[in-house]
Fold:
Amino acid sequence: MSSPKAKPAPLPEDTSIGGYRIMRRLAAGGFGVVYLALDRDGQQVAIKEYLPASLATRAQGELQPQVAPEKLSLYRLGLKSFFEEGRALAQIAHSSVVTVLNFFRENDTVYMVMNYLEGASLQEFIVTARSLKQDKVFRESTIRSLFDEILRGLRVVHQHKMLHLDIKPANVFVTDDNRAVMIDFGAAREVLSKEGNFTRPMYTPGFAAPEMYRRDSALGPWTDIYAIGACMFACMHGYPPTEAPQRQTKDKMALSLQKLRGVYSDNLIELVEWCMALNPLDRPQSVFALQKELSREGERRYTRLSMAEKMRLQLDTFVSDAKKTIIKPTVPAATGMRPK
Structure:
């Protein structure tokens, strides 16, 4: 069995690029590496380097990525998209959208310089909150104010004829001074997935709209709106929703949301259902339409489930959990063995 390909090495600490000094690696994903760096005035910035792990390699201590000749055209296509994304983001000034201070080419790749944010991702908050095992993962007022802020930023992004294409709790950053900021746009990822012969989906399961799995589908504001609905769902449920391809086979979304009746208002539950409609035409077609609905605070109704309905839901959950237990391997996965 062949071993998995090693990830390209990050830039060495203390490397100087474009007038910035690399301090350390902050994060790495399939499409790039984010570093903490200092500018000429000693101010902290975050620098994102375009470095798709599926197309490029880089040895420890090296600066330049190595790309196989047959992957070069795809690498350059993603590079161009990443550069254009930086240029477009640099024109957006909104507190809920990551600020791009500079972007430049060096070492046969592109670097995007952004303001360095201190705080934690929404994903980290969800994991902490669900561990408390309370009825509500977050209070409804918290969810409404958080997404009101995010939607203000997303509306500006869409007005600039851009899409985010990778909205998920890990890409919503809550700063120490209580701002919600969208980070890590997915334009380069989108270009590469449409062009390359990738065998695995390049999206985060549960947050990607169904049309992102099909090459011939039109993407638009409705695609980001699906992801917003999925993020709201995660804030209410504590876990991501079922991924779109599975939902198209057997959709349990209504059942999952039904369990939240009485915990969250009918209005919020219906809003999530609207955003996460499998058919793009059944979703809000613009951020403005969604904002209008989200701000209708006066219409909060709570459906109190009858005892019979609660018992039915509990029974459904029990049956579903029992099925999971039945198909669980009885031999520890670490041994590499599987039950016969």
Observations:
- The first helix runs from residue 72 to 89.
- Residues 321-340 have pLDDT under 50 and may be disordered.
- The chain has two domains: 18-115, 119-323.
